[in-house]
Structure formats: C-alpha cells, structure tokens
Amino acid sequence: MYQLLKNKTIIVMFVLIVIVGTGCTKQEEEPSSDNTEPTTENSTDETKQDESQTEADNHPSSEEMNVENISLPSTFEALEALPAGEDAGPVYDYESEKSTSEQDKEIAEHFSDLPFPEDKENPTDQELDYLYREILKRVQLDFQGPEKLMKDLKFQSLGNPDIEDSRYQFKEQLNVVILLDASGSMAQVINGKTKMKAAKDAISNFLNELPEETKVALRVYGHKGTGSDEDKKMSCRSTDRIYGFDSYDADSFMKSLNQIEPAGWTPTGLALKEAQKDLSAFDGSKNTNIVYLVSDGIETCDTNPVQTAKKLYDSKITPIINVLGFDVDGEGQNQLQEIADSVDGIYQTVSDENELMNELEKVNEIADAWQDWKEQGMQSIDLQHVSNELDIFVYTTDEESKVVDERTRINFIVNALNDYGHISNESRKYLEEKNSDYHDWILSEIDTFEKELEAMNDKGYKEAVKALEEKYELNVDE
Question: What's the predicted TM-score (pTM) here?
Fold first, then answer.
C-alpha cells in the first residue's frame, strides 16, 4: 500500500513539473503585456546588458582609429586651426564646496563616454593614442600664432603713419562703442561677483580713464524677458543704447547701467545691427570708430552675428571691431572667434574682471595717443607708446599659460578615469607621458616664435610685418 501511494505521489509530482514547465515555456514565448512590470532579477540582467552594450559602443573600431584620427598636430598652423573643445573650461571649480574626490567622480562620469580600449588591462598603443586624441578634442584650447600678435600690434599702433589702412589712422574724432551681453548667463558668479557686476565695474573704470573728448556709447542686449521659450521672442528683440554718444559722466552712466540686470537670450547679431545705426552719423573719413563686443556665450537668437558684423565692418563707418569672450565655453569661443575673424578683429578670451579690464585698457592707451596727436596739430607722428618687446612677452606668456593649463586639465581627467576604473595604471602612465611630450613640443614652438620675434624687434612696423609674412606665410593686411 505504501509503495502504491509512493508511486502515485511520484506520478503527481511529475505531472505538476510538466504543467509548470509548460506554463513557463508559454510565458517565455508570449510577449508580455504593456502593463507587466519586469521582475527585479530581469531588470538587473537588462541593466547589466545595457551597461555592457554601452561599454561595447565606446570601443573604437579599426576604421575610427585611422592615422588621421590618431595623429596630433605637427605644425603650429595646424594647432591654431583646431577649434576650442566643448569642455575647454576649467576642470575643477576651486570655489565649489565639493571635495576634490567628489569632483574627480563627476569628471570620470562626465568623460565616461570616451572610446576606452576594449581590453582595459591589455590595450594597444593605437587604442590609447585614439583615446588621448579624443580627450584632447574635448578640452582643446584656442592657441594662436604670430598673426594674433600682429593684429594686436596693428591695433595698438593705431595712428602710426606706417599703417596704410585708413581704418587705423587717427581722424578728427574718436568714438568708442561697447556692446555688452546682458543675457541670463551673465548672472553666473566669478570670484564672488556676478559676471554682469564684474563687467559693469570694468567698463565703468575703463570709461572713467578715457580722454574727455572721446565720445563713448554703451549698448546692452538680451536684458529683457527670461531664458524661457515663452520669452524668447521678446528677449531676442531686446537691445538698447543706454548711454552715449557723450563724453563720459560717471553719475549719469552708472544710473543708466545700474538699471540693467542679466535676464534672457543672446541676440548678438541684433546688437551689431543696431550699433551700425548708432554710428551712422560718424563717417569713417572723419571719425576713428572702435567697437568692442563683450559676450559670455554663443548667439541664441538666430540673428546672424558673423554676417551682421561683416556688414558693419564694410560700411562707410569703417570701424575696428574687437571681441572679448568673458568666461566663455568652447562653443562660445569658436563662434566669437569667427565673428572677430570675419572683420579682421582681435578675439581674446578673458576669465575675470581683471583680464577684462586689461584688454579694455588698450583702448585707453590708444585714446591717450589720439589726444596727443590732436594736441600736436593733427600732424602724422610715429607713435611709440607700446613697446614691441612687451607685446612679444605678453603674447608668448599667454600661449605658454595655455600649454600648462591644457596639459594640467588632461592629466586631471586621465587620473580621474584611472581612479574610477575606466583605464589601468599602465594606460594612465602612457597617456601622461604622451601628454607631456605633446605639450613640450608646443612650448618649443612658442619659444622659437619668441626668439624670432625678438630678432625682429628693432625693425620698423612695415619691415616687421613683411618679415613675419615671409617667415610664417601670414595674410596680414596693412
């Protein structure tokens, strides 16, 4: 009897196993309904698969790792032609309350989409070279060759009779227009001040030092509405000349300026278009007109700033147009550089109020020279107010600073990627050595420029320009 019950129990268990097994098979074959939530176990498996797929997607193919995508610039001209990277800003925020380790973690996460080697412990040199090139693209700074120096010299030698371009010759009246970005991003804080407050202080100090006979104007843009889509149309139509054209009066100027707070979008092209109207009464044959565009980012209103700047430049106003990028990211640097290039102007990135003030100070020196020129009966004189030696020193120091900055940024990134398991210790060492060798090469190029420029320091302006054009095959219009 016991044996019979035992046999029946075994049969029942077998049937149950078959039924359950059949049910599981059917469940696997039938697609789940939209309302069915996956189990935790299935979810975990899918997450692992997604992570594995993401890692696989990050591995470079042999087609991607070709010579062109791995090789680094071999000439300074090629280096200069590279656009600023999307992550060209500082890697660490030293004013942040976050610890270094917390920021390291954020860096590693931010750069986790880089093309890491497929086998982390045994990467090929080709894979690491490709990885380095991709890191460099992200943090690339805007290196500039001797042509930038020549533009600076040309601007600072304004009034020099050796400069044949009438745009750079002193006329009866000197007019200075500043176009100030008042979009919402100018509310960001640098060194305890908003960018807008820092810009206001720098511009106020600059205007206060101009000769009394200089006529000045300030136009703001993007100062109405908000950064919301609903306000975009209104904000993109906002630009006002809040001061000028008059000699500088501190009380009147500050009263107008203090009403402006950072607000909306960035209609850069609109500001340039209205600046042409502002200057329409000041023909270039009798007026030396200087326009400074100060912005902390890209145009966001589709107002064609490059095309509009070119139209202003080619008008009878014949202005000199320079551009200052105030604590601007890589994308903004590239666009602002394009605006300056389209009008043969100077572009300079400034990171804080002091650097902004230093750039504006150049206009003060020119204005002083203009006043001296007028006092000497408007006779053509050779202005030697700026030493070429100092210009060469400033140029080479700025470029060397970029080298140190870019090299340090890449080392920070490489170390963070190593700390959080994206690359091995050996890969980190390889990348650091490659980084050091590459930036040592750039420093050697800058050192060569410095020696050659100093050798030309005793030449007159025309001779120096000619020598530089022949040496570097530059296209520097006089």
Answer: 0.65
Q: Nearest-CA neighbor of 133 among 82, 92, 76, 91?
A: 82
Using pLDDT thresholds of 50, 70 and 90, give the confidence band for residue 288: very high
List the one residue out of 436, 382, 173, 438 whose CA is nearest residue 279.
173
* Closest C-alpha to 369, from 190, 214, 201: 214
pLDDT in tens, 221-238: 999 999 999 999 999 999
Q: What angle do CA 72, 128, 77 make, to 5 degrees?
A: 5
Angle, vertex CA 35, rays to CA 32 and CA 40, nearest 5? 75
DSSP conformation letters of 230-250:
GGHHHHTT-EEEEEEEES--H
Q: What gap in Å lies between CA 92 and CA 411, rounded to an integer?
A: 12
What is the rounded CA–CA span in Å between residue 435 and residue 413?
11
Nearest partner of 156 among 348, 412, 294, judged by Cα: 348
On the question of a cis peptide bond just before residue 245, with omega within 30 degrees of 0, the verdict is yes
Residue 73: HSE in the Cβ half-sphere, 13 Å Cα cutoff: 18
A 10 A CB-CB count for 19 gives 10
Residue 33 belongs to what H/E stretch? none
User: How far are the Cα atoms of 11, 334, 423 from residue 439, in angstroms, in the given order?
Assistant: 79, 22, 22
- 155 versus 104: the higher-pLDDT residue is 104
Helices 305-313 and 268-278 sit at what angle, rounded to 10 degrees? 20
pLDDT at 324 over 70: yes
Task: Tell me the pLDDT tens digit for each residue of 30-84.
Answer: 444 333 334 334 444 444 444 444 445 577 777 777 766 788 999 998 998 899 8
Q: Coil, strand, or helix at residue 23?
A: helix
Task: Reply yes or no on whether the pLDDT at 431 is more than 90.
Answer: yes
Eight-class DSSP state of 85:
P
Q: Which two tokens stand for residue 10?
A: 């075994």
- Cβ-proximal residues to 204 (8 Å cutoff; 6+ apart), any chain: 250, 253, 254, 257
DSSP-derived 3-state class of residue 290: strand
- Residue among 415, 384, 452, 447 at smallest CA distance from 153: 384
Is the four-CA dihedral 453, 457, 458, 462 of positive or negative sign? Answer: positive
**Token representation of residue 384:** 């030697």
Name the residue type at position 2: Y
Report the alpha-carbon distance of residue 213 to residue 176 in Å, rounded: 11
What sign for the dihedral angle of Cα 181, 331, 310, 321?
positive
Alpha helix ranges (H) inside 59-120: 67-70, 76-81, 100-110
